Amino acid sequence: MTAKLALKPTTTFAGATPGFADSPAEARTGDRSGVRLLVAADDGIRHRRFPDLVEELRPGDTLVVNTSATVNGELDAIWRHDDGEQPVVLHAVEGPGGWVVELRAAPDAGSPVLDAAAAVAGTGVVFAPVMLHTGFSSQEAGEAPQPERFEVPAATAQLLNHMKDRGDRVIAVGTTATRALESAVEGGRLVARSGWTERVITPDDPPQVVDGLITGWHDAGASHLLLVEAIAGAERTQRAYDAALAGAYAWHEFGDSCLFL
Q: Per-residue pLDDT tens for 164-222?
C-alpha cells in the first residue's frame, strides 16, 4: 500500500479545471517548439515558449538532466472481472526485484529541454547528468512517491559542488532530477551515490542543492507539488499556478512547462 503524506501542498486551483494534453507537442503541432514556458522568477511572471529558455539562463547555470530512458509502463494485459475489464499497469518499483501493479495508466513524455540544448551551447550554461528510474509519475493526492533507483556520478557531484562554491545556480530539469540530487547530499555537499531513495522533498525538508526547477504542471495535492513549493516557495508557486490556469496552460506529461527561478 502506498504511504500517505502528513503534509499537504498549500497551492489551490480556486475552482478552475486544468486542461490536459493527451499527446506530445510534436504530435499536435509537428515539433516541440510550441511548448509554452511560464517563468516564475523574483521579478514576476513571464509567458514564453520553450525555445526562449536560453534567454532566461545565465553563464554558470547548470541544468541537471535525468538520463534514465523512458520505459513503457503499461502492460499488454487486461484484468477481466465480474464488472467488466480494466488495463493492468506496472507503475512503480518497491525495491530490487519488486514491482507494484495498479489499475490505472499514465503516458510517458520526452522533455522539450532536449530541443533547447543546441541553443544553450556556447552560452556558458552547463549540463550535468544524473539517473533516477521513475515509478508511476503522478501519484494520487496525498500519496508519497515510491522508492526509486538513482545514481549521482562522481563527476556530477564534483562539478555541482564547484559551481555552488562559485555562487552559480543549479537548475533541475524535472522532479526526478531533483530527487536524485537531493538523495546524494551529505553534510550540505553532493557525494557520488547510487541505490534506492525514499527521499521526499517538502517545505519541511527542503532541497539543499537545487536552486531552480523546470517542471510540468501537477495536480492539486500531489507530492510533486510539495517539491515545487519547497524550491519556489508557496507564494510564488501559487502565483505561477494562478497564471497558468488563467492562461490555459496544458497539464501533465505532454503539457506545457514552468521554470521556477
A: 999 999 999 999 999 999 999 999 999 999 999 999 999 999 999 999 999 998 888 88
**Grid cell listed for 195:** 541505490
User: What is the C-alpha to C-alpha distance for residues 17 and 14, in angstroms, rounded to an integer?
Assistant: 9
134: amino acid identity, one letter: T
Tell me the per-residue pLDDT of 141-169, one tens digit each, with 9 for 90 and over: 677 788 889 999 999 999 999 999 999 99
Which amino acid is located at 242 in the chain? D
Cα separation, 87 vs 50, whole angstroms: 34
Return the closest-CA partner of residue 248 out of 52, 18, 24. 18
Q: Give the contacts of 44 (CB within 8 A, at least 6 positions apart).
A: none
- Residues in CB range of 142: below 8 A, 6 or more apart: 4, 5, 8, 221
In order of their start, the domains of the chain are 25-70+119-260 (3.40.1780.10)
117-136 pLDDT tens trace: 667 778 899 999 999 987 65
C-alpha torsion angle, residues 4, 5, 9, 12 (rounded to 10): 20
Beta bridge partner(s), residue 186: 189
| C-beta of residue 238 within 8 angstroms of C-beta of residue 256 | no
